[in-house]
Amino acid sequence: MSERTFRVWRGDADGGDFAEFDVEVNEGEVVLDVVHRIQAEQAPDLAVRWNCKAGKCGSCSAEVNGMPRLMCMTRMNLFEEGQTVTITPLRTFPVVRDLVTDVSFNYEKARSMPAFAPPQDLEPGEYRMQQVDVERSQEFRKCIECFLCQNTCHVVRDHEENKPPFSGPRLFIRAAELDMHPLDARDDRRELAQDDQGLGMCNITKCCTEVCPEHIKITDNAIIPMKERVAGDRYDPLVWLGRKIFRK
Amino acid sequence: MSDNDMNEVEHLSCDVLVIGAGGAGLRAAVEARLAGKSVIVISKSLFGKAHTVMAEGGAAAAMGNVNSNDNWQVHFRDTMRGGKFLNNYRMAELHAREAPDRIWELETYGALFDRTADGKISQRNFGGHEYPRLAHVGDRTGLELIRTLQQKLVSLQQDDEAAGEGEDKLQVIDETTITELFTAGGAVKGAFGYRRGTGRFMAIAAPSIVLATGGIGRSFKVTSNSWEYTGDGHALALRAGAKLINMEFIQFHPTGMVWPPSVRGILVTESVRGDGGVLKNSEGKRFMFDYIPEVFKAQYADNPDEADRWYTDPDQNRRPPELLPRDEVARAINSEVKAGRGTEHGGVYLDIASRRSAEYIRERLPSMHHQFKELADVDITAEPMEVGPTCHYIMGGIEVDADTAASAVTGLFAAGEVSGGMHGSNRLGGNSLSDLLVFGKRAGQHAAAHAGASEPPKLTAAEIDAATEEALRPFGNDGENPFALQSAMQAINGRLVGIIRRAGELEEALTELAALKDRIANVSASGGRAYNPGWHLALDLRNMYVCSVATAMAALERDESRGGHTREDAPGMNPQWRKVNLVASLEDEEVRLTRRAVPSMTPELLGLFETSELSKYMTPEEYQSSTESSTEESR
């Protein structure tokens, strides 16, 4: 057991400041344990979002010493002895209170994402897919919607004006997931990503991949293939000719 | 904002109000909307974060994709055995019959389960299931389920938009907690709650309400459950006049993490054992062979050689005892630790590293690999895990009609963990995800039908004012910090109402809980109303309290040991108790306990079992007359 100084941002949409807490830390603890101790013993109204405490629900996202992280998966032994731990809310989203932000941006973008289109000629129970074919989409379905990728993406971080046309990495992997789904009946996923989701605004700096707690290769396995396919479909002369002939 | 503005109550109405946004609630909402009704879903957390995401192993459904001998009758038998024949047989039957359709339906919503070589949904072995039966996605099946249902809801919203319907046809209101149900003349008519983010109140008028609030696990110290699981639905139902059954039956999942202390209780999926992992004590002994109860000797191997052969040849060999139902395994671990053969941190070893290749483990159990590496510095492909029992699930819950999911209160339905009866005294792993699909759909369907036949209800200013006053009470109180009171309650339940129980300790628990009652009534909240966890917990405490009392009372009354209720002073099952459900209700704010007969199985269903097996559970009169008249053809 040792004592540690935590600086936690407290406030709301109108502004706020850091509050300092000296708090006990025990062996094996994660940042969320310490935040809970502050809440239980010093500040019962400290606002923090959490659920599973096992890295599976993606609720407790925050910025710890400037890094976007899940607080439940950030071990205290990551920090130097005596190092002050500073926690701030996700910067890309409006603050509700303390460490809680309004992440409705992400739900609105999901709302405008065309859903899975089931194949018309198959009844429930008749779906047949090979493991190797579902695995590509399964990687993206590991997403726990912690929105750390959305928070980190510099297209929208500090660029409020880019939010309307840009859906962000979370929704790009959703687009890729559906594009690669062996039985999805739509064939315009790439065009939708390019035209409606702002895929073209991404310039592949891979910040999203770096912060993903599920280690999903967002850029390499979703964004780049989607961009290449859009380019292939649009600018390949044979595809262009085919389109002319078959009026696609 | 002035206090007046803050106290303005938002008024909403819908045909079907679904309280809870886990698997059961979302499946109910889908069904009610497909039936043409307007639906509001209340989610205590953000949309898509409910505890369903924590389900790891899979969803049990007798599709027969891996072993074609499987069918609903075998699944039904396993479920009844797992529940020690206390299950509501009709629920177990409906569940076994309908689970495959509910799983296949998810594929049409976009779910991507792991596949067999011939491209069907793959199925894995699990405790208590005779054949590989759990549809799964690695070890993150719950996430797949909730995300699929979440995305189905969104697609229904998109359909509404395309059809020119208003957004109010299907709304998800997230980070909102319901604190009261409104009733009139024995029927529900609406609900009252607050938005977490602002602290503002809302009143929702609805002729049909589906409770799908999950469990009570937060009342225990060592638990796999999150802050949400405070028995809200159980308590709301009791206060509305519904009844709870089987509250003494709590499942302690045998394998929770035990170290480091901060992760104590976090779940380690049963799939580790289904995929070849074994339990060992500190002497290195594979101890489960010593704990096979009489009733399961026919199905479980009594030696390591046979047990190990089963993985590749299940038709010629009996199953490894590590895959006994959860109650048996949890008790065995508890006994080993008590006998001084536990690990350094008070658990036992779960070893898959010495039995399967690193590659296999990473492929089959990716999130376990990740979890141990990140949280405990343990590489499960190279070292054993330390595990011990953790409070996981309550079999007990709202008494419902098997076919309609209707409670005793008109218009009030329940599905998923908050309902009771389906799992009897112990739930098999994998039967929760299928339960919430089967009965979520049924609840949604019957709630929609009921709403169609009802007048839109009206809420009165007086009842809304009273609910407002009750919700704000903690701000005016001068009592204790809610977090301290929660710890006190968790300590009582953990110490005295845990995995092994004794009459004297249960009496002590009831005394100690009673002493908490006034302290909870006087719990105080500080700060403002916007996103104030202390205030929210203060309001949850009374729900946790009433559930804890119901559990302790029923546990004291039932002087036998069965499934998730073990009485050290009353070991063994008593066939007389098998016929009895303990029913909790609320009278003048006090929990009352009565006895009611467990529904008798039909001769056709009894005929699915050998008489010799039934004789281990039932009195002779119960099985003799009916088995004589039944046929064996359905086997």
TrEMBL record, chain A:
<dbReference type="InterPro" id="IPR050573">
    <property type="entry name" value="SDH/FRD_Iron-Sulfur"/>
</dbReference>
<comment type="pathway">
    <text>Carbohydrate metabolism; tricarboxylic acid cycle.</text>
</comment>
<dbReference type="InterPro" id="IPR036010">
    <property type="entry name" value="2Fe-2S_ferredoxin-like_sf"/>
</dbReference>
<keyword id="KW-0408">Iron</keyword>
<dbReference type="GO" id="GO:0022904">
    <property type="term" value="P:respiratory electron transport chain"/>
</dbReference>
<dbReference type="GO" id="GO:0051539">
    <property type="term" value="F:4 iron, 4 sulfur cluster binding"/>
</dbReference>
<comment type="similarity">
    <text>Belongs to the succinate dehydrogenase/fumarate reductase iron-sulfur protein family.</text>
</comment>
<keyword id="KW-0001">2Fe-2S</keyword>
<dbReference type="Pfam" id="PF13085">
    <property type="entry name" value="Fer2_3"/>
</dbReference>
<dbReference type="InterPro" id="IPR012675">
    <property type="entry name" value="Beta-grasp_dom_sf"/>
</dbReference>
<dbReference type="InterPro" id="IPR017896">
    <property type="entry name" value="4Fe4S_Fe-S-bd"/>
</dbReference>
<dbReference type="InterPro" id="IPR009051">
    <property type="entry name" value="Helical_ferredxn"/>
</dbReference>
<dbReference type="GO" id="GO:0046872">
    <property type="term" value="F:metal ion binding"/>
</dbReference>
<dbReference type="InterPro" id="IPR004489">
    <property type="entry name" value="Succ_DH/fum_Rdtase_Fe-S"/>
</dbReference>
<dbReference type="InterPro" id="IPR001041">
    <property type="entry name" value="2Fe-2S_ferredoxin-type"/>
</dbReference>
<dbReference type="GO" id="GO:0006099">
    <property type="term" value="P:tricarboxylic acid cycle"/>
</dbReference>
<dbReference type="InterPro" id="IPR006058">
    <property type="entry name" value="2Fe2S_fd_BS"/>
</dbReference>
<dbReference type="GO" id="GO:0008177">
    <property type="term" value="F:succinate dehydrogenase (quinone) activity"/>
</dbReference>
<dbReference type="InterPro" id="IPR025192">
    <property type="entry name" value="Succ_DH/fum_Rdtase_N"/>
</dbReference>
<keyword id="KW-0411">Iron-sulfur</keyword>
<feature type="domain" description="2Fe-2S ferredoxin-type">
    <location>
        <begin position="4"/>
        <end position="91"/>
    </location>
</feature>
<keyword id="KW-0004">4Fe-4S</keyword>
From TrEMBL, chain B:
<feature type="region of interest" description="Disordered">
    <location>
        <begin position="611"/>
        <end position="635"/>
    </location>
</feature>
<feature type="binding site">
    <location>
        <position position="269"/>
    </location>
    <ligand>
        <name>substrate</name>
    </ligand>
</feature>
<feature type="binding site">
    <location>
        <position position="427"/>
    </location>
    <ligand>
        <name>substrate</name>
    </ligand>
</feature>
<dbReference type="Pfam" id="PF02910">
    <property type="entry name" value="Succ_DH_flav_C"/>
</dbReference>
<feature type="binding site">
    <location>
        <begin position="43"/>
        <end position="58"/>
    </location>
    <ligand>
        <name>FAD</name>
    </ligand>
</feature>
<dbReference type="InterPro" id="IPR003953">
    <property type="entry name" value="FAD-dep_OxRdtase_2_FAD-bd"/>
</dbReference>
<dbReference type="GO" id="GO:0008177">
    <property type="term" value="F:succinate dehydrogenase (quinone) activity"/>
</dbReference>
<feature type="active site" description="Proton acceptor">
    <location>
        <position position="326"/>
    </location>
</feature>
<feature type="binding site">
    <location>
        <position position="253"/>
    </location>
    <ligand>
        <name>substrate</name>
    </ligand>
</feature>
<dbReference type="Pfam" id="PF00890">
    <property type="entry name" value="FAD_binding_2"/>
</dbReference>
<dbReference type="InterPro" id="IPR015939">
    <property type="entry name" value="Fum_Rdtase/Succ_DH_flav-like_C"/>
</dbReference>
<dbReference type="InterPro" id="IPR027477">
    <property type="entry name" value="Succ_DH/fumarate_Rdtase_cat_sf"/>
</dbReference>
<feature type="binding site">
    <location>
        <begin position="432"/>
        <end position="433"/>
    </location>
    <ligand>
        <name>FAD</name>
    </ligand>
</feature>
<protein>
    <submittedName>
        <fullName>Fumarate reductase/succinate dehydrogenase flavoprotein subunit</fullName>
        <ecNumber>1.3.5.1</ecNumber>
    </submittedName>
</protein>
<feature type="domain" description="FAD-dependent oxidoreductase 2 FAD-binding">
    <location>
        <begin position="15"/>
        <end position="433"/>
    </location>
</feature>
<keyword id="KW-0560">Oxidoreductase</keyword>
<feature type="binding site">
    <location>
        <position position="392"/>
    </location>
    <ligand>
        <name>substrate</name>
    </ligand>
</feature>
<feature type="binding site">
    <location>
        <begin position="20"/>
        <end position="25"/>
    </location>
    <ligand>
        <name>FAD</name>
    </ligand>
</feature>
<keyword id="KW-0285">Flavoprotein</keyword>
<dbReference type="InterPro" id="IPR030664">
    <property type="entry name" value="SdhA/FrdA/AprA"/>
</dbReference>
<dbReference type="GO" id="GO:0033765">
    <property type="term" value="F:steroid dehydrogenase activity, acting on the CH-CH group of donors"/>
</dbReference>
<dbReference type="InterPro" id="IPR037099">
    <property type="entry name" value="Fum_R/Succ_DH_flav-like_C_sf"/>
</dbReference>
